[in-house]
Amino acid sequence: MFDEKENVIRYKWDHWTGSGYRLRFDATDQSHRFRVEDWNNHVVVDDYGCADLDEALKVLNRFFDIDPAQERSRIAEWLPVHAI
Length: 84
What we know:
Elements: E1 2-3, E2 8-14, E3 19-25, E4 34-38, E5 44-50, H1 53-63, H2 68-76
Antiparallel strand pairs: 1-2, 2-3, 3-4, 4-5
C-alpha cells in the first residue's frame, strides 16, 4: 500500500508485534535514500538505511518473500525518476 503523504510503501503486517514493515524514500539523505522501518511505531528496525533500491529489496526479502523484479516495477511508479 502506497502512502503519498509519508512517501512510503507499507508491507507485511505482523499481528504478534502489532506492526509491520514499510519502505520509505528519503531524498534528503544521499547515503541512505531508502529505509526499511517499523510501520506502526515509526522506529527504524535495526537501522536498515539502504543506499539504493536493490539493497532495500534485499532487506525486505529477508523478512518475507517478495519478487524483487515485480517490486522494483511497482516502486518505480511512485518514485521520482532520478531515484532509481
